User: Fold TonB-dependent receptor plug domain-containing protein from Agaribacter flavus.
Amino acid sequence: MQCHKISLAISVALSSPFVLAESSNFEESVENIVVVSSRIAMPLREVATSISVVTEEDLAQRGYVSFVEALRTQVAINTSSSGGIGSVSSLRVRGEEGYRTLVRIDGVDISDPTGVQVQPQLAHLVSSNITRVEILRGSQGLVYGADAGGVINVSTGRQQEGMFGSVTAEAGRYKSRNLSAEIGGTSGSLEYYISAADYSTEGFNARVSDTELADNDGYDNTTIHTRLAYKVSDNLHLGLVARTNDGEGEFDACGFGDSFTHLCSSDFHQDNVRFHAEYEHGDTNHQVALVKTLVERENFNQGIASFLTKGFAERLEYIGNAEIGDNSQLVWGFDWEKEVISTANQGRIQKGYYVEYQSEVLSDTFLTAGARYDDNEDFGEHLSYRLSAAKLWSLAEGELKLRTSYGTGFRAPSVFEVEYNRGPFAFAPASETQLKEEQSKGYEFGVGYTNDQGSSYEIVYFDQKIEDSIFFDLSGFSGYLQDIGTSFSEGLEVIINQSLADELVLTANYTYNDTEDTSGEQRLRRPKHLANIGLSYSLNRLQFTANMRFVRDFTDIGGELPNYDLVDISARYQVDDNLLLFARIENAFDTEYQDLAAFNTSGAALNAGLKYHF
Assistant:
């Protein structure tokens, strides 16, 4: 196991970056360290769960404005949106619903407590100023919560001595415009980082049924993100993260009867604040955080307010870890969370406690065993757990890794789901259904090889099951029903990262996902075959990147949707040490396709811009 001080430094820098890098060796180590599996720093080679890492260079090469679009290039991830950027978006990891995936930005949980299900509003998340993404695939999010079927851990800025910053400007089709800036640095014991992004587009006609008006559905987004860190002493560090996200969008098909129209709009506002303190004592580290989330959402029908939702979440988190001997450590913690929909006077409290033991039981053999106890105010007590193991073998020019993990969890019906069935808009059978918690479990086996030149290859088999999943009655629109029985996602992941030459790099992934609901039918909006092939070619100051995406065998309400292939191409030219020019064509061959049966998607879109950094 890695020594405690290095582990602590990297953990702090990546999970809630509040401490400065102290040496160049620290910065070199970061690339091979992840925190998403257990919320503490761990060498990636020792981790037995499935983790994807997206670096700042990966994001810059492809250049997507939408964070959802950037994630689509990763293995086992499928997304669907009801239109362009800013429209309602869903992200599924290994075929499971987006509300089972947690998203944290610099340690801040950005879940919306007022939603139908408590989940992040990914439609309003732009990729500007994001420097690293770690994705935990599968139902293995024990330390984040029993309902965390997957976790996306996002970092912004960087740890760097002195002051740094950048300004980026971009424009493209649909009269889109994207402006962003960042500045960060250190001053004595204080570290600071501030970023801002402003995006707008006139969009395109999002709804297939909008044939008469056929208006464009535009979107505007402003995001401001700040984090501060103060080193009180060698053992005590304080930090603050504050984030504001505003989104204004137009959409189609709202209202009923005579009030039905395609002239609809929405306003979204979310504030997040996280105060963090960390204390190190010997071989033990303690972190405590207070988090507050405020959300306000409002829809408008032809400019007249028709639906307003306000709410908040309050969270207290504690996590500790300590070395036990030379080869083991213990991780433990608790969380207390209150979710409230204030416009409906509805709320709930849930408490959780967890512990995980990590050990190198034999040379290059790593085991973890963890358990979590949750007490939900409405749905009682639940116990979940996670077990994992990894074995490494050194080969002539690389390392072979065999790993496996198993995890369980549960999700209580959201406040909205429960209260809707009790409200005036529900009727039988939903009004007569007493919802209960969903249960989940999943396991995986993986084998991977990494050579000394940095190329890597991995194959993973996964099997995930959901018991008694909750769904909205799309046939009778009566409310929320319980799908009694087992739904599952089972499949295979193949991941390749290969240097073909000094200037040419291949990245590829393929996901086979066989899904079934309780009636034996393929689950909606879950392609059986997903693949991405990326090529990056560098020539002096010029770099070209292409990503090809293949989607096969998927269904939506009404039946099967056509297979499709998408090609995105981008180029970057480094004019000098400070100035970068870039351009990209999304959907380069103007493919007509759908991710949802009722909605259109973007045609070929050219975007270009520049970035000045110092």
